[in-house]
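Retro notes, item 3 of 5
We never archived the inputs for the magnesium ion complex last cycle. Fixing that now. Sequence and ligand:
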Amino acid sequence: MRGREYMAVLQAVTEVMGEAVHIVDAAGKTILYNEAMAQLEKISVEDALGKSFRKVFSNIPEEESTLYQALVNRREIRNKQQTYLNIYGKQVTTINTTIPILVDDQVVAAMEVARDITEIKDMSDRILSLQDSRERSAGPDAGSGAGGEQGRPARSSGIRRYHFEDIIGEDPRFLQAVERAEKAAFNTAPVFIYGETGTGKELLAQSIHYGGNRQKSPFLAQNCAAIPESLLEGILFGTEKGGFTGAVDRAGLFEQANGGTLLLDEVSAMPYELQSKLLRVLQEKYIRRVGGSKDILVDVRIIATVNEDPRELIARGALRPDLYYRLNVIGITIPPLRERRADIPVLADRFVKKYNEEYGRQIWMIADPVLQKLAAYDFPGNVRELENIIMSAVSMAEDDHVLTERDISISPGYHQESEGFGGYTGAEGSLAEYLAGIEEKVIRHYLALNGGNITRTAKDLGMLRQNLQHKLKKYE
Ligand SMILES: Nc1ncnc2c1ncn2[C@@H]1O[C@H](COP(=O)(O)OP(=O)(O)OP(=O)(O)O)[C@@H](O)[C@H]1O
Ligand SMILES: [Mg+2]
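Structure as it came back at the time:
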């Protein structure tokens, strides 16, 4: 095959693979420039092909041009983001991999493969500006939830401020956890809280903040699992003009929480590399915005949480051990509710009082069979689930003053139906109907557990959010 034919093959390969490709020869002349690249850079193939790439991209300084670096300095650059203006003055942002191509140790060409990240960039912009406007409207004392559970200000309406007085419990292991939290309120060391979902991690974290001398400064919370990995860094550390996550300069959560506390939920969901960046920030107390070059001094107390055993998270490679040891200066473990059953009646009592007030009811007592039922239940959703059960019982109670068994709907009991073929006898209709019935029950249960939060419910059930939404429609 001759050179031109090789080139045609190469061109076809790159087109089919859908990546934008630009190849220059040793003299810097563009020998391959495919349609995808033309789309991305808004430069026509004819304008680029056969020309010196330094002329076509004359506005990129040599030291910033990845192609130039590959060609002249044999520098290989992988997954680097590049924001630049093309010859029409349009701003283009890409993630690039650029490599020199060597034959007999001579650079014969350089190749750049680029991925368009315009959509990612837009999404990040939107999240950060939502955060910004929320910060402005709520002021520095904004309670929790900057960024919100799904990357939007999910908890903006009900700013909950928990204090130690709000914490109910008698179990010795639980009280020990609270005691450690009380001590933590008097210093600024990092805190690491491990507890299953609904065990009260946020309750403790806020109590630490509002019970200590940082109470006048912001308390911000970010769930690391709720944000696409590529955006998290910009959200935590902020962005600078030209950096790929932001068209404008924006402070990240570290700067916004300065002087106060930043709660990082599900810290193990943070990409491994970002975890080491976080570790450096904890050690050095400086942050640098994405795309920025200035070190910014920050004073932020970090409270990190996980809902799985940290030892397992480390073994599985989800949590960096060095970060864990740095965060675990004050380590707090909250036992699940099923391991501190003594707390069930005390909590139930408190929630009855709380929802009496909220719903204008006068429930004075909980009937014994109800307490027995609660005592025997496993509470996979822990205190949050107990609270939801009592809430709906109080609002719907048939008797004026007593909560009875009829009022309590403890999960559908699907987890106890383990006899026979999952309880199917054939009298329930077709198998498909039966399975759909179970599916509906499970979904309703987890939805209630998560307080109607679809993202979390989908996560719990290991399904895509869109799938869950589809099913919700189906089951109304
Ligand atoms: N010991 C407790 N006393 C009173 N209320 C509690 C207690 N523990 C939890 N709660 C209540 O249960 C609910 C869940 O608590 P919280 O949001 O702190 O849990 P979490 O551990 O952060 O859960 P997740 O992992 O799902 O984020 C809240 O409404 C909280 O007020
Ligand atoms: Mg929480």
